[in-house]
Amino acid sequence: MLSNKHSEALLAKIREQLPLSGREKFNLIVELSIPSMLAQITTVMMFFIDASMVGHLGAAASASIGLIETTTWLMGSVMSAASIGFSVQVAHFIGANDFFKARQVFRHALICGLIFSLLMCGIGVSIHSALPYWLGGGADIAGDSSVYFLIYSLTLPVVLLYHLMSAMQKSSGDMRIPSLLSIILCLLDVVFNYIGIYMLHLGVMGAALGTMCAYAVTVVPMSYMALRKNKILALHLDHVRFVWVWDYVRNALKISLPIAIQSVLMSGAQVVSTLIVAPLGNIAIAANSFAITAESLCYMPGYGIGEAATTLVGQTHGAGRNDLCKNFAHMTIGIGMLVMAFMGVVMYIFAPEMIGFLSPVAEIRELGAAVLRIEAFAEPFFAASIVSYSVCVGAGDTLKPAIMNLISMWCVRLSLAYWLAQEYGLRGVWFAMACELTFRGIIFLVRIWRGSWMKALKPIVAK
Question: How much is the mean pLDDT over the chain?
Answer without folding.
Answer: 87
